[in-house]
Amino acid sequence: MKRHVVTLEELGEGALAAICSYALEEPRDVLHGQGVALVFEQPSLRTRSSSALAVRALGGWPMFITGDEIGLDHRESVEDVGRVLAEYYSVCALRVRDHGVFERLVATVGDRLGVINLLSRAAHPTQAIADVLTMAEHFTAGRVEDLAGLRVAYVGDVTNVARSLAVALRRLGAEVVLGAPDAYQLAAAGPEDPRRIERGSLRLVASAREAVAGAHVVYTDSWISMGLEAERAERLAALGEFQVTEELLAGADRAAVVMHCLPAHRGEEVDAQVLDSPRSLVWRQVAHRVSAMRGALRWMKEDS
Questions:
Q1: What per-residue confidence (pLDDT) applies to 304?
Q2: C-alpha dihedral, 55 to 169 to 235 to 68, nearest 10°
Q3: CA within 20 to 30 Å of 62's CA: 14, 118, 184, 295, which one?
């Protein structure tokens, strides 16, 4: 049976640790002679680049396919696209808007085609894996199992990134605080819900200062993602208190670091001075996107 990485919540116990372990090992030729379809409904810089490099490092051949070329549920149904891809490729990794695409793909060809979620509105598991690797590199000499007790504050708009990150951190025993106005706070239920994870801890607060108090990591994401441009003025007004500045960081742990999944809008969710400061780990996050994808692919292929 094929393995899939659709949400971190769905992965079995120990899977996250195994993926991180594979991510840090020397690459093996587990994809030798195999094609990996990389489907992108939306533009991408880091996800596209890191995915291609990871596939090649493992001996495979990446093939990029745009949303216009497939036209999910317009030109062809999701199910028929999956059946076609399963004839050509061993893995299909997709960056799509509708999370339901993954459920339909796995239901149709899940025993023939490995599926990886490169981003949906509900989850961003490969980013969260990269973030965990980055934190472990900085705090625990690369040992993700030692992140228990780390306090991580995510502030601003609680996005798909925040959901996957919180699931990953709670699985590792970390303390997670999500700071956001009520309208931008963690949505009820749905896929990738960190409230359903029993380990670690999760707290929701409406104050930026309360969220970062004593935090070892302060994390933020763009307030105005693709498709939300019409809400720009409203979002800037509602989220202004949550901008990551030196003043806000004064309430965090003295050695706190800053993380951001990028692209960053300097002067909006994060101050440029903070983003470029020595306490910023954003470029290590970028580097670990390749590690994360290698780990996910190896976990899917090893002993499966």
A1: 60
A2: 20
A3: 14
Starting at the edge strand found earlier in the chain, the sheet holding 61-66 runs 61-66, 35-40, 91-95, 114-119
Could you list the beta-strand ranges (E) of the chain: 35-40, 61-66, 91-95, 114-119, 151-155, 175-179, 201-205, 217-220, 257-260
Do 158 and 240 reside in the same domain of the chain?
yes
Is the domain of 49 the same as that of 168?
A: no
Tokens, residue 170:
């709670």
- The whole-angstrom separation of Cα 33 and Cα 25 is 21
Assign 227 a pLDDT band (cuts: 50, 70, 90).
confident
Q: Which of 102, 52, 32, 117 lies closest to 72 in space, CA to CA?
A: 102
On whether residue 6 sits in a domain, the answer given is no
Q: In whole angstroms, what is the distance from residue 119 CA to residue 112 CA?
A: 21
Range of the domain at 60: 15-124+286-301
pLDDT in tens, 90-137: 999 999 999 999 999 999 999 999 999 999 999 999 999 999 999 999
By the 8 A CB rule, do 102 and 92 touch? Answer: no
- Check whether residue 120 and residue 207 sit in a common domain: no
Residue 188 — pLDDT band, cuts 50, 70, 90?
confident
Helix axes 282-301, 15-24, angle to 10 degrees: 110
Q: What is the pTM of this model?
A: 0.97
Given a contact cutoff of 8 angstroms between Cβ atoms, the answer to whether 41 and 96 are in contact is: yes
Pair 47, 126: CB distance under 8 Å: yes
